[in-house]
# Entry
Amino acid sequence: MHELAICESIVEAVLKEMRTISPPPRRLLRTRVAVGVLRQIVPEYLAFAYEELTKGTAAEGSALELIHLPVAATCRRCGWQGEKFEDIFQCKECGSGNVMITGGTELYLESLEVEQDEQPQHQGLS
Amino acid sequence: MNSRSIKVYRDLMGANAEWAGKTRKLLEKKKIVMTNLIGSPGCGKTRLLESLATRAADGMRFAVLEGDVETTQDAERLAALNVEVRQLLTGGACHLEAKLVHHALKDLPLDALDFVFVENVGNLVCPAEFDIGETAKIAVLSVAEGEDKPVKYPLLFREAKAVLVTKTDLLPHLQFDMGSCIGFIRQVNPDIRILKVSALSGEGVDEWIRWMLQLRSR
# Structure
């Protein structure tokens, strides 16, 4: 259940970002978080934690969307590069275990989708 | 009313990484090696530390930070052997985070230490995710758990610099294939040092100590 601790960082980051958005958004619709599959996050646990932790905050009612990033690797023996879904840590080309993991441990807040009032039209520009 | 998407790209492990960085600086300044012991509940982490304490470990000056969800039982076991120990209680969380470890570390008599062992909360998943500023992660796997754990929980075995295969004294009573276990470990991490140990018989404990002394001279 590391999802709760991770979700605390997500909500903290979201609220911090929301305060910097100008003009201030009416409400938050969606939070997108990029997660490497090696992070071993269970989406349902994270969604539950998100719903609980956003209650009573400016992010309440918003949806949490995960962007899953695959394991990516480079083989140190044959130079193969690519994304790996099965047989992780073994080269798809030569079978060597001597691979360098280059992706799959990411964890970052990717974007926020907010609802805003219509921008006033600029006058005299057209 | 309209909606717009705002790109953010903010690292979510940032705060933890900051504390881990502070710990690394402190360890470097004090020339201390800190290892992060990670394994299932009951795999023998505390028992191994007890066996280190009773061997006095060739003048190895060490302290222990004990991570648990509840109770001070593990710290009491080590304190009974005159080990400098602090108990870290996570109150429900399944892993230790860098900030808590940093504060506990600062509470230790660092000038009188060469090694700090952090015994993480018993768990093969979450502790592997959180950098606590350690010099090396050590995976602990007892032979009673089965050969296939390294491929079932690959991240830990991928991140660790060494794996201690513990309770080898139990082997005559189990259907545990050491060869296939080592194969699974190597599949996940070809560079990892594999040490077979038994705190009960003492097998492999000296080899483990030698490996840790090498970490210090690096």
